[in-house]
Design goal:
The complex is a heterodimer of chains A (about 300) and B (about 300). With about 300 residues, chain A is α/β, with parallel strands linked by helices. Helix content of chain A is about 35%, strand content about 30%. Chain A has a six-stranded mixed sheet, sandwiched between helices. A four-stranded antiparallel sheet of chain A has the order 2-1-4-5. In chain A, a hairpin with a 2-residue loop joins strand 9 and strand 10. The longest helix of chain A has 16 residues. Chain A starts with a strand and ends with a helix. The longest helix of chain B is centred in the middle third of the chain and has 38 residues. Classes of the chains: A alpha/beta (about 300), B mainly alpha (about 300). The interface between A and B is medium-sized, with 33 and 30 residues.
């Protein structure tokens, strides 16, 4: 495996009895990428992450992290991996600082790493308070600090902005961008598709454990691009006329609006074609997909 | 070895700062003080110390009074403290062990720790070593308290006392044996907590096992019926524990059978068998704990 590939899964599968939580998943994540892992609840995102982190044993297939098979050499694979999986988890009777001290000691990391990561997530002032009194946002930031403790090459973040206020969310997004700019690879699980669209270069979408879409965010959005037009008169005729064009790959009609799967630059050509056939076009323009629309389409969660 | 050292440092930091550990230590010392204090009161009433010799309440036999006098003076007080370690201390050790492992499941901190240090066997061993260190410190604190009570009892009740270098050497052996007696219960608790993934499973499993085991000790009397029955009964844990506890008492000149009427010394297994059978139970429970932890997937909090 190339050293530029930071995460690779080969037919990674997890079964719980008859339930297939992750089904033959093949992923390749390159160094320096911000990669989004998306899917509806129960799609297998967290199970996938748990397998990448050696917490859950795959039923079949394998995962290679930073060049090491996670099952065969978990310590080597995870040495430079920082992760926040599910909700933040800490010892409530310990301070934020001491929680990080426990993790530093367990991982054989220098405790000198603690102060900088607390500074980075702006928790220095509250570091000596017990985690029991932390707000959800503070716990979230402490979890990110814990993930940064080993100076990771790969950072896996599961819903990193969950529970944060808008200012906190913006700070964490800025932090993720800064970490990515520093050359780190980031795998981001989020339900906030707008966030993923902003932060991730590439995404994979899971549904019922299967990979249903994967690619660069820009390419996926382009794939969903088309033309949106409103016609006067015989709509059925307009649908038939549009569908007959060789560069049109699909036509749908919703609420009197035609959605034509075709390159945006063909708008004038389509307009002329319909007008020549006697169909009056009242309105025509590019139909841009958001990641959310694309997500809903591929997961079928309309 | 370095992995184990790192994990031990983390486990010890967690345990020594945990309020539960201090509460249990306070409970042990309080119950020990109550136990020795009540014997001192019984002795004072028996010998009329409280009424300046005018009133004596002869509650116990002369042989029992001799035992109590020994328990309240050097070196017998050490035997009394170690006897408490193996009765009340065992129950508290079960609670401590269940809290130490079960909480890592309940709080979700196990997954965070295992990402930093994925060697689950080393994690379990480090936790066991930290627990044993905490139990050793609790034992030493109990011995110190016992010594203070013996000094006070000696001054007020005029008890003869002698302490030789050999007694201190015996103390080392006694403490090691006392901790060895607790070990199978601690390991059974860890196995239950790992299997049930909770503090409740650990406490419940550990205490139920302890109660059943103590009850099984009463089967010892069946041994007089038939030699084969005696062999089988002596393969249970409790008769072997009783032998080791008895040896600890004898080490400091005490005779447990005088104060614990149901104990038939003639039916107890040999010291070698007791040591080996306890080792076998430790191995069984230790393997069970390791297998439950190593083979299972680590999910989220709760």
């Amino acid at each position: 495996m190339s050293t530029q590939i930071v995460v690779q899964t080969e037919a990674l599968t997890k079964r719980y009895g008859k339930l297939v939580a992750v089904d033959q998943l093949c992923l390749r994540i390159s160094r320096g990428e911000v990669f989004g892992l998306l899917g509806p609840n129960g799609a297998g995102k967290t199970t996938t992450i748990a397998m990448l982190l050696g917490l859950v044993r795959p039923s079949a297939g394998r995962a290679v992290v930073l060049g090491h098979d996670i099952q065969a050499a978990p310590a080597a694979a995870l040495r430079r991996v920082g992760a926040m999986i599910e909700s933040p988890a800490f010892y409530p009777y310990l301070s934020g600082y001491d929680n990080l001290r426990v993790l530093a000691r367990a991982g054989g990391l220098p405790t000198t790493r603690i102060a900088p990561v607390l500074e980075l997530v702006e928790l220095t002032a509250r570091a000596r308070d017990r985690v029991r009194v932390y707000s959800q946002g503070m716990r979230q930031r402490l979890a990110i600090a814990a993930a940064l403790l080993p100076d990771p090459e790969l950072i896996i973040l599961d819903e990193p902005t969950n529970g944060l206020d808008p200012a906190g969310t913006a700070e964490i997004r800025a932090l993720i961008r800064a970490l990515a700019a520093g050359g780190r690879t980031i795998v981001l699980c989020s339900h906030i598709l707008h966030e993923v669209e902003q932060l991730c270069g590439r995404v994979a979408i899971l549904k019922a454990g299967r990979l249903v879409a994967e690619g660069a965010v820009a390419a996926l959005l382009q794939r969903g691009q088309g033309l949106r037009l409103r016609v006067e008169g015989d709509v059925a005729q307009a649908v038939a006329l549009a569908a007959a064009l060789p560069w049109v790959t699909g036509v749908r009609q919703t609420d009197g609006v035609l959605l034509v799967d075709a390159p945006a630059e063909r708008a004038a050509e389509l307009n002329a074609h319909l007008t020549r056939a006697g169909v009056l076009v009242a309105e025509i323009g590019a139909q841009e997909h958001s990641l959310e629309q694309f997500f809903l389409e591929v997961t079928g969660d309309h | 070895m370095k992995v184990l050292t790192n994990l031990f440092a983390a486990e010890w930091l967690k345990l020594r700062t945990r309020p539960l550990a201090w509460v249990l230590l306070a409970a042990f010392l309080s119950l020990l003080a109550l136990y020795l204090g009540l014997w001192a009161l019984v002795l004072a009433l028996q010998e009329g110390v409280l009424a300046r010799g005018d009133l004596r309440l002869e509650l116990l036999s002369a042989a029992q009074i001799v035992q109590i006098r020994r328990q309240l003076s050097f070196p017998g007080v050490f035997g009394a403290v170690l006897g408490q370690l193996n009765s009340v201390g065992g129950i508290l050790a079960v609670i401590l062990a269940a809290g130490a492992l079960g909480s890592d499941f309940g709080w979700g901190t196990l997954r965070v720790l295992l990402i930093r240090a994925p060697a689950r066997g080393a994690y379990l061993l480090a936790k066991l070593l930290a627990l044993l260190l905490a139990l050793l410190i609790g034992t030493l604190a109990g011995l110190a308290l016992g010594a203070l009570i013996a000094l006070a009892a000696g001054a007020t009740l005029g008890l003869p006392s002698s302490l030789a270098a050999g007694d201190l050497l015996a103390l080392v052996v006694g403490v090691a044996r006392g901790l060895y007696v607790i070990l199978p219960y601690v390991l059974a608790t860890l196995a239950c907590a790992a299997f049930g993934r909770s503090v409740l499973a650990g406490v419940g499993g550990g205490l139920i096992f302890l109660a059943l085991d103590v009850s099984a000790g009463s089967l010892g009397s069946l041994g007089v019926v038939n030699d084969l029955v005696l062999v089988l009964v002596n393969l249970l844990l409790q008769p072997n524990i009783n032998r080791l506890v008895m040896m600890n008492a004898e080490l400091f000149g005490l005779d447990q059978s005088v104060l614990a009427g149901g104990l038939d010394l003639a039916t107890l297994p040999s010291p070698l068998q007791a040591t080996l059978v306890v080792a076998a139970y430790c191995a069984l429970f230790g393997y069970g704990a390791w297998r439950a932890l190593a083979r299972r997937d680590i999910g989220g909090a709760g």
